[in-house]
Amino acid sequence: MKEQINEIRETAVKQINSCQKTNELTNLKVEYLGKKGKLSLLLKQMGKLPPEERKTVGQLANKVRNELEQNLEQKMAQIKLIEQENKMKSEKIDVTLPGQKFQIGNIHPLSKVMKEINDIFIGMGFSIAEGPEIETDYYNFEALNIPKDHPARDTQDTFYINDNILLRTQTSPVQIRVMEKQKPPIRIISPGRVYRSDSVDATHSPVFHQIEGLVVDKNITMSDLKGTLELFVKKLYGEDSNVKFRPHHFPFTEPSAEMDVMCFSCKGKGCSLCKGEGWIEILGCGMVHPKVLKECNIDPEIYSGFAFGLGLERIVMRRYNIDDLRLFFENDMRFLSQF
Ligand code: DAH
Q1: Which atom number of ligand 1 is nearest to the Cα of residue 288?
Q2: In this structure, which residue's CA is closest to atom 3 in ligand 1?
Q3: Looking at ligand 1, which atom is closest to the CA of residue 212?
Q4: Which residue has the higher pLDDT, 4 or 119?
Q5: Which of 62, 90, 118 is where one domain is finished?
Q6: Interval 83-104: pLDDT, tens
Q7: Three-class DSSP category at 164
Q8: Is residue 310 in some structural domain?
Q9: Total domains present in the chain
Q10: How close is the Cα of 308 to the center of ligand 1, in Å?
Protein backbone atom coordinates (compact mmCIF):
# COMPACT_ATOMS: atom_id res chain seq x y z
CA MET A 1 0.00 0.00 0.00
CA LYS A 2 2.88 2.33 0.70
CA GLU A 3 4.03 1.89 -2.88
CA GLN A 4 0.60 2.77 -4.15
CA ILE A 5 0.58 5.94 -2.05
CA ASN A 6 4.01 6.93 -3.39
CA GLU A 7 2.85 6.26 -6.93
CA ILE A 8 -0.15 8.51 -6.44
CA ARG A 9 2.15 11.17 -5.02
CA GLU A 10 4.53 11.02 -7.94
CA THR A 11 1.94 11.29 -10.70
CA ALA A 12 0.08 14.00 -8.79
CA VAL A 13 3.20 16.13 -8.38
CA LYS A 14 4.02 15.75 -12.08
CA GLN A 15 0.53 16.73 -13.15
CA ILE A 16 0.41 19.68 -10.78
CA ASN A 17 3.74 20.99 -12.03
CA SER A 18 2.78 20.88 -15.67
CA CYS A 19 -0.62 22.46 -15.08
CA GLN A 20 -1.24 25.89 -16.77
CA LYS A 21 -4.81 26.87 -15.91
CA THR A 22 -6.62 27.51 -12.65
CA ASN A 23 -9.65 25.39 -13.56
CA GLU A 24 -7.42 22.43 -14.48
CA LEU A 25 -5.69 22.76 -11.12
CA THR A 26 -9.04 22.74 -9.29
CA ASN A 27 -9.94 19.54 -11.11
CA LEU A 28 -6.66 17.94 -10.01
CA LYS A 29 -7.40 18.83 -6.41
CA VAL A 30 -10.72 17.00 -6.60
CA GLU A 31 -9.16 14.07 -8.43
CA TYR A 32 -6.55 13.43 -5.75
CA LEU A 33 -7.71 14.94 -2.49
CA GLY A 34 -11.50 15.01 -2.86
CA LYS A 35 -13.85 12.80 -0.84
CA LYS A 36 -13.95 10.34 -3.68
CA GLY A 37 -10.41 11.18 -4.76
CA LYS A 38 -7.65 8.67 -5.39
CA LEU A 39 -6.02 9.07 -1.96
CA SER A 40 -9.28 8.74 -0.01
CA LEU A 41 -10.36 5.65 -1.93
CA LEU A 42 -7.05 3.97 -1.16
CA LEU A 43 -7.24 4.82 2.54
CA LYS A 44 -10.67 3.18 2.76
CA GLN A 45 -8.90 -0.11 2.27
CA MET A 46 -6.70 0.45 5.34
CA GLY A 47 -8.98 -1.84 7.35
CA LYS A 48 -7.58 -4.81 5.46
CA LEU A 49 -4.03 -4.10 6.68
CA PRO A 50 -2.51 -5.73 9.70
CA PRO A 51 -2.77 -3.33 12.71
CA GLU A 52 1.00 -2.70 12.99
CA GLU A 53 1.14 -1.41 9.41
CA ARG A 54 -1.90 0.86 9.74
CA LYS A 55 -0.01 3.50 11.75
CA THR A 56 2.89 3.99 9.32
CA VAL A 57 0.61 3.89 6.26
CA GLY A 58 -1.66 6.49 7.91
CA GLN A 59 1.31 8.74 8.65
CA LEU A 60 2.57 8.47 5.08
CA ALA A 61 -0.86 9.20 3.68
CA ASN A 62 -1.15 12.36 5.82
CA LYS A 63 2.30 13.51 4.81
CA VAL A 64 1.48 13.05 1.12
CA ARG A 65 -1.86 14.83 1.53
CA ASN A 66 -0.15 17.82 3.17
CA GLU A 67 2.53 17.91 0.53
CA LEU A 68 0.04 17.81 -2.31
CA GLU A 69 -2.10 20.51 -0.70
CA GLN A 70 0.92 22.76 -0.41
CA ASN A 71 1.93 22.08 -4.01
CA LEU A 72 -1.54 22.88 -5.22
CA GLU A 73 -1.62 26.14 -3.32
CA GLN A 74 1.74 27.32 -4.57
CA LYS A 75 0.93 26.40 -8.13
CA MET A 76 -2.41 28.20 -7.90
CA ALA A 77 -0.70 31.43 -6.78
CA GLN A 78 1.80 31.09 -9.61
CA ILE A 79 -0.84 30.56 -12.32
CA LYS A 80 -2.96 33.45 -11.05
CA LEU A 81 0.01 35.77 -11.24
CA ILE A 82 0.75 34.72 -14.82
CA GLU A 83 -2.88 35.07 -15.84
CA GLN A 84 -3.00 38.56 -14.36
CA GLU A 85 0.17 39.58 -16.14
CA ASN A 86 -1.18 38.30 -19.45
CA LYS A 87 -4.41 40.20 -18.91
CA MET A 88 -2.55 43.43 -18.24
CA LYS A 89 -0.39 42.92 -21.31
CA SER A 90 -3.41 42.40 -23.57
CA GLU A 91 -5.20 45.43 -22.17
CA LYS A 92 -2.29 47.75 -22.52
CA ILE A 93 -3.21 51.22 -23.87
CA ASP A 94 -0.88 52.94 -26.26
CA VAL A 95 -1.12 56.56 -25.19
CA THR A 96 0.99 57.67 -28.14
CA LEU A 97 -1.69 56.66 -30.70
CA PRO A 98 -3.50 59.61 -32.33
CA GLY A 99 -6.88 60.40 -30.68
CA GLN A 100 -10.29 59.96 -32.30
CA LYS A 101 -11.67 63.12 -33.88
CA PHE A 102 -14.81 64.41 -32.19
CA GLN A 103 -17.51 65.17 -34.78
CA ILE A 104 -19.00 68.60 -34.28
CA GLY A 105 -22.49 69.09 -35.74
CA ASN A 106 -23.73 71.94 -37.92
CA ILE A 107 -26.50 74.40 -37.39
CA HIS A 108 -29.44 73.44 -39.62
CA PRO A 109 -29.83 75.88 -42.55
CA LEU A 110 -33.38 76.72 -41.41
CA SER A 111 -32.17 77.57 -37.89
CA LYS A 112 -29.27 79.53 -39.28
CA VAL A 113 -31.39 81.84 -41.43
CA MET A 114 -34.10 82.05 -38.77
CA LYS A 115 -31.54 83.34 -36.33
CA GLU A 116 -30.28 85.83 -38.87
CA ILE A 117 -33.82 87.17 -39.45
CA ASN A 118 -34.52 87.28 -35.70
CA ASP A 119 -31.33 89.26 -35.17
CA ILE A 120 -32.27 91.81 -37.84
CA PHE A 121 -35.62 92.47 -36.14
CA ILE A 122 -34.14 92.45 -32.65
CA GLY A 123 -31.76 95.13 -33.96
CA MET A 124 -34.84 97.22 -34.87
CA GLY A 125 -36.25 96.94 -31.35
CA PHE A 126 -38.54 93.93 -31.79
CA SER A 127 -38.75 91.22 -29.15
CA ILE A 128 -39.55 87.55 -29.67
CA ALA A 129 -42.96 86.11 -28.73
CA GLU A 130 -43.98 82.48 -28.71
CA GLY A 131 -47.27 80.68 -29.09
CA PRO A 132 -48.44 77.06 -28.98
CA GLU A 133 -48.33 74.82 -32.06
CA ILE A 134 -51.49 73.09 -30.85
CA GLU A 135 -53.95 75.93 -31.11
CA THR A 136 -57.67 76.53 -30.75
CA ASP A 137 -59.96 77.37 -33.66
CA TYR A 138 -60.56 80.73 -32.00
CA TYR A 139 -56.94 81.93 -32.09
CA ASN A 140 -56.01 80.35 -35.42
CA PHE A 141 -59.10 81.54 -37.34
CA GLU A 142 -62.00 83.19 -35.52
CA ALA A 143 -60.15 86.03 -33.77
CA LEU A 144 -58.25 86.71 -37.01
CA ASN A 145 -61.54 87.52 -38.74
CA ILE A 146 -61.76 84.12 -40.43
CA PRO A 147 -65.20 82.79 -39.38
CA LYS A 148 -66.27 79.16 -39.85
CA ASP A 149 -67.63 79.61 -43.38
CA HIS A 150 -64.82 81.83 -44.68
CA PRO A 151 -63.20 80.61 -47.93
CA ALA A 152 -59.74 81.39 -46.52
CA ARG A 153 -60.15 78.22 -44.45
CA ASP A 154 -60.05 76.10 -47.61
CA THR A 155 -56.43 76.97 -48.33
CA GLN A 156 -55.46 76.35 -44.72
CA ASP A 157 -56.82 72.88 -44.07
CA THR A 158 -55.00 71.32 -41.17
CA PHE A 159 -54.91 68.46 -38.67
CA TYR A 160 -57.76 68.59 -36.18
CA ILE A 161 -57.53 67.13 -32.70
CA ASN A 162 -61.23 67.86 -32.27
CA ASP A 163 -63.66 70.46 -33.64
CA ASN A 164 -62.01 73.18 -31.60
CA ILE A 165 -58.37 72.17 -31.30
CA LEU A 166 -56.01 71.97 -34.25
CA LEU A 167 -52.39 72.29 -35.33
CA ARG A 168 -51.91 75.97 -36.18
CA THR A 169 -51.80 76.77 -39.90
CA GLN A 170 -49.98 80.08 -39.43
CA THR A 171 -48.07 82.03 -36.80
CA SER A 172 -50.72 84.80 -36.93
CA PRO A 173 -52.56 83.50 -33.79
CA VAL A 174 -49.55 84.72 -31.78
CA GLN A 175 -50.67 88.27 -32.72
CA ILE A 176 -53.91 87.70 -30.81
CA ARG A 177 -52.20 86.06 -27.83
CA VAL A 178 -49.77 88.98 -27.54
CA MET A 179 -52.44 91.70 -27.90
CA GLU A 180 -54.63 90.00 -25.27
CA LYS A 181 -51.84 90.18 -22.70
CA GLN A 182 -49.90 93.27 -23.67
CA LYS A 183 -51.16 96.76 -24.39
CA PRO A 184 -49.45 98.99 -27.01
CA PRO A 185 -46.75 99.83 -27.80
CA ILE A 186 -46.21 96.33 -29.22
CA ARG A 187 -43.28 95.33 -31.41
CA ILE A 188 -42.83 91.56 -31.71
CA ILE A 189 -41.83 88.84 -34.11
CA SER A 190 -42.82 85.23 -33.65
CA PRO A 191 -40.92 82.47 -35.44
CA GLY A 192 -42.23 78.91 -35.32
CA ARG A 193 -43.57 75.75 -36.91
CA VAL A 194 -46.93 75.66 -38.68
CA TYR A 195 -48.94 72.81 -40.18
CA ARG A 196 -51.22 72.17 -43.16
CA SER A 197 -52.62 68.96 -44.53
CA ASP A 198 -50.59 69.14 -47.75
CA SER A 199 -48.97 66.15 -49.41
CA VAL A 200 -45.20 66.16 -49.47
CA ASP A 201 -43.49 67.20 -52.71
CA ALA A 202 -40.55 69.39 -53.76
CA THR A 203 -42.33 72.60 -52.67
CA HIS A 204 -44.88 71.41 -50.08
CA SER A 205 -44.64 69.91 -46.64
CA PRO A 206 -47.28 69.35 -43.95
CA VAL A 207 -44.93 71.12 -41.55
CA PHE A 208 -42.99 74.28 -42.29
CA HIS A 209 -41.88 77.53 -40.63
CA GLN A 210 -43.17 81.07 -40.58
CA ILE A 211 -42.03 84.27 -38.96
CA GLU A 212 -44.82 86.60 -37.90
CA GLY A 213 -44.41 90.28 -37.13
CA LEU A 214 -46.67 92.74 -35.33
CA VAL A 215 -46.36 96.42 -34.48
CA VAL A 216 -49.15 98.30 -32.69
CA ASP A 217 -48.90 101.86 -31.39
CA LYS A 218 -50.38 105.31 -31.88
CA ASN A 219 -49.98 106.73 -35.41
CA ILE A 220 -48.63 103.59 -37.07
CA THR A 221 -49.14 103.90 -40.83
CA MET A 222 -48.49 102.03 -44.04
CA SER A 223 -45.24 103.96 -44.44
CA ASP A 224 -43.97 102.42 -41.17
CA LEU A 225 -44.78 99.01 -42.62
CA LYS A 226 -42.97 99.75 -45.87
CA GLY A 227 -39.95 101.33 -44.21
CA THR A 228 -39.53 98.48 -41.74
CA LEU A 229 -39.83 95.71 -44.32
CA GLU A 230 -37.62 97.48 -46.83
CA LEU A 231 -34.91 97.86 -44.22
CA PHE A 232 -35.31 94.20 -43.30
CA VAL A 233 -34.79 93.10 -46.91
CA LYS A 234 -31.73 95.31 -47.34
CA LYS A 235 -30.17 93.75 -44.23
CA LEU A 236 -31.01 90.23 -45.42
CA TYR A 237 -30.18 90.50 -49.13
CA GLY A 238 -27.87 93.54 -49.31
CA GLU A 239 -28.14 97.33 -49.65
CA ASP A 240 -28.88 97.21 -53.38
CA SER A 241 -32.03 95.07 -52.99
CA ASN A 242 -35.33 96.42 -54.27
CA VAL A 243 -38.84 95.58 -53.09
CA LYS A 244 -42.33 96.20 -54.41
CA PHE A 245 -45.74 95.84 -52.82
CA ARG A 246 -48.74 94.35 -54.63
CA PRO A 247 -52.31 94.67 -53.30
CA HIS A 248 -53.61 91.42 -51.89
CA HIS A 249 -56.24 90.19 -49.47
CA PHE A 250 -55.87 88.76 -45.97
CA PRO A 251 -58.90 88.68 -43.65
CA PHE A 252 -56.96 90.08 -40.67
CA THR A 253 -55.34 93.10 -42.41
CA GLU A 254 -56.86 96.02 -44.30
CA PRO A 255 -55.38 97.08 -46.62
CA SER A 256 -53.27 93.98 -47.35
CA ALA A 257 -50.31 93.43 -49.63
CA GLU A 258 -47.72 90.96 -50.75
CA MET A 259 -44.12 92.06 -50.88
CA ASP A 260 -41.77 90.96 -53.68
CA VAL A 261 -38.00 91.27 -53.76
CA MET A 262 -36.22 91.92 -57.03
CA CYS A 263 -34.58 88.65 -58.05
CA PHE A 264 -31.02 88.84 -56.73
CA SER A 265 -29.82 86.44 -59.39
CA CYS A 266 -30.96 88.28 -62.57
CA LYS A 267 -31.68 91.72 -61.05
CA GLY A 268 -35.20 91.84 -62.44
CA LYS A 269 -34.53 90.53 -65.94
CA GLY A 270 -36.13 87.15 -65.39
CA CYS A 271 -34.30 83.84 -64.87
CA SER A 272 -34.90 80.26 -63.74
CA LEU A 273 -34.66 81.17 -60.05
CA CYS A 274 -37.55 83.68 -60.27
CA LYS A 275 -39.31 81.65 -62.98
CA GLY A 276 -38.92 84.49 -65.48
CA GLU A 277 -40.76 86.98 -63.25
CA GLY A 278 -37.80 89.14 -62.22
CA TRP A 279 -39.39 89.37 -58.74
CA ILE A 280 -39.79 86.88 -55.91
CA GLU A 281 -42.68 87.03 -53.45
CA ILE A 282 -41.42 86.70 -49.88
CA LEU A 283 -44.16 87.78 -47.49
CA GLY A 284 -47.73 88.85 -46.82
CA CYS A 285 -48.47 91.99 -44.85
CA GLY A 286 -50.96 94.75 -44.12
CA MET A 287 -52.46 97.13 -41.60
CA VAL A 288 -54.05 95.25 -38.69
CA HIS A 289 -57.82 95.03 -39.29
CA PRO A 290 -59.86 97.19 -36.83
CA LYS A 291 -61.99 94.14 -36.06
CA VAL A 292 -58.89 92.25 -34.89
CA LEU A 293 -57.80 95.14 -32.65
CA LYS A 294 -61.31 95.37 -31.14
CA GLU A 295 -61.37 91.61 -30.51
CA CYS A 296 -58.29 92.13 -28.31
CA ASN A 297 -59.76 95.17 -26.53
CA ILE A 298 -57.49 97.63 -28.27
CA ASP A 299 -59.34 100.77 -29.44
CA PRO A 300 -58.83 101.19 -33.23
CA GLU A 301 -59.72 104.88 -32.89
CA ILE A 302 -56.57 105.38 -30.78
CA TYR A 303 -54.21 102.68 -31.99
CA SER A 304 -53.22 101.24 -35.33
CA GLY A 305 -50.69 98.66 -36.40
CA PHE A 306 -49.13 96.59 -39.14
CA ALA A 307 -48.43 92.90 -39.41
CA PHE A 308 -46.51 90.58 -41.70
CA GLY A 309 -45.85 86.90 -42.13
CA LEU A 310 -43.08 85.25 -44.09
CA GLY A 311 -42.36 81.64 -45.02
CA LEU A 312 -38.90 80.61 -43.90
CA GLU A 313 -38.34 77.57 -46.17
CA ARG A 314 -38.81 79.57 -49.36
CA ILE A 315 -36.32 82.22 -48.26
CA VAL A 316 -33.72 79.61 -47.31
CA MET A 317 -34.25 77.68 -50.56
CA ARG A 318 -33.63 80.81 -52.62
CA ARG A 319 -30.66 81.80 -50.51
CA TYR A 320 -28.80 78.51 -51.07
CA ASN A 321 -30.30 77.51 -54.42
CA ILE A 322 -32.03 74.45 -52.92
CA ASP A 323 -34.63 73.04 -55.29
CA ASP A 324 -36.28 70.44 -53.06
CA LEU A 325 -37.86 71.30 -49.71
CA ARG A 326 -37.75 67.66 -48.55
CA LEU A 327 -33.97 68.00 -48.07
CA PHE A 328 -34.63 70.11 -44.96
CA PHE A 329 -36.39 67.29 -43.17
CA GLU A 330 -34.55 64.15 -44.28
CA ASN A 331 -31.50 64.63 -42.03
CA ASP A 332 -29.09 63.49 -44.70
CA MET A 333 -25.61 64.39 -43.41
CA ARG A 334 -24.31 64.95 -46.94
CA PHE A 335 -26.83 67.79 -47.30
CA LEU A 336 -26.63 69.21 -43.78
CA SER A 337 -22.86 69.33 -43.54
CA GLN A 338 -22.72 71.86 -46.41
CA PHE A 339 -23.99 74.71 -44.25
N1 DAH B 1 -50.68 84.16 -42.03
C2 DAH B 1 -50.57 84.41 -43.46
C3 DAH B 1 -50.44 83.06 -44.19
O4 DAH B 1 -50.07 82.10 -43.59
C5 DAH B 1 -49.41 85.29 -43.75
C6 DAH B 1 -49.65 86.71 -43.32
C7 DAH B 1 -50.16 87.63 -44.19
C8 DAH B 1 -49.36 87.10 -42.04
C9 DAH B 1 -50.42 88.93 -43.81
C10 DAH B 1 -49.60 88.42 -41.63
C11 DAH B 1 -50.13 89.34 -42.54
O12 DAH B 1 -49.34 88.85 -40.42
O13 DAH B 1 -50.35 90.63 -42.16
O14 DAH B 1 -50.71 83.00 -45.36
Answers
A1: 13
A2: 170
A3: 12
A4: 119
A5: 90
A6: 888 888 888 888 899 988 888 8
A7: coil
A8: yes
A9: 2
A10: 6
